[in-house]
Design brief:
10-stranded mixed β-sheet, two-stranded antiparallel sheet, Extensin-like C-terminal domain-containing protein, signal, Extensin-like_C
Length: 279
């Protein structure tokens, strides 16, 4: 028992000695001092804390967010982004009509009663090889109207008249009440073949060519080369028309010729020693 009491007494003495030897400050490092919070105006929060700052490179415009008396506080805000440009669907442009000075009254021209139109003044070419000495502006051939008055020479007008009377009309027959009009998309135009840079001057530039995209019937139905060429009924009519043009015209090009004629017939009166060129 005496030994136990002596042990406790010894422990008490050691504890007291350790307490006296302990340092006056904590051995752990002090916390880093924090930045003092910014004092806000008594009348409201700082404008800078009201909205997030604009991203770098963003256009900003000031707006008033608070005012007291004559003093006002502003903050920056991002402008609304510009609307994305609307993409306009590209549509194949129809060839514009050339400026042609007509002479005389409308009526029979080129010495053929069934060719109707008006004579025009000579057309000078802006490119070498272009131009027409005696052009005419044709409105109808073989009793069938053209979808637009077309400029050409009389040789081409006569070929077109012969094709409509002896080729197109018989190919259509009584379908849809008969033939109403020929849809022309190009006539005289001073340009190169297929509008390709460096190519030869097109027969369009000499007034010897016309492009036909299809026909319209009296019941209002339109048969187009683009949509009708592969169809059974309309395709047969278009193929007969295409074949019948080979003879009156020196060159006949259609969907089977190349990528430039998928939607129309190119008809011109160029002459070749070997005869008409038809594709």
């Amino acid at each position: 028992m005496k030994r136990l009491v002596a042990s406790f007494a010894l422990l008490a003495v050691l504890a007291a000695s350790a307490a006296q030897a302990a340092p006056s400050s904590s051995p752990f490092p002090r916390l880093r001092p924090t930045a003092m919070p910014r004092l806000l105006p008594v009348f409201g929060p700082s404008p800078e804390t009201m909205r997030p700052r604009a991203r770098p490179g963003t256009r900003t415009a000031p707006i008033v967010v608070a005012s007291v008396g004559s003093a006002s506080f502003t903050a920056a805000r991002s402008l609304r982004p510009k609307a994305r440009p609307s993409y306009v669907r590209k549509v194949a442009a129809v060839q514009s009509q050339p400026k042609v000075t007509t002479t005389g009254k409308s009526g029979s021209i080129c010495g053929v009663k069934s060719i109707r139109g008006v004579k025009a003044a000579p057309i000078p070419g802006r490119l070498k090889g272009c131009g027409v000495k005696k052009p005419v502006k044709v409105s109808s051939v073989g009793g069938v109207a053209l979808s637009r008055p077309s400029v050409m020479n009389c040789e081409t007008a006569k070929a077109l008249n012969s094709w409509v009377k002896n080729g197109v009309k018989p190919s259509v027959g009584r379908l849809g009440g008969g033939l109403k009009s020929i849809n022309v998309i190009a006539d005289y135009s001073c340009r190169t073949r297929n509008n390709q840079p460096g190519a030869k001057i097109s027969e369009h530039g000499r007034g010897k060519a016309v492009d036909v995209s299809g026909i319209t019937l009296n019941n209002g139905k339109t048969i187009t080369v683009l949509k009708g060429w592969g169809k059974t009924a309309d395709g047969k009519i278009l193929r007969r028309m295409h074949k019948s043009a080979c003879g009156p015209f020196g060159t006949v090009l259609g969907p089977n010729s190349d990528k430039y004629h998928k939607d129309h017939f190119h008809l011109d009166t160029a002459s070749y020693r070997s005869g008409s060129y038809c594709r």
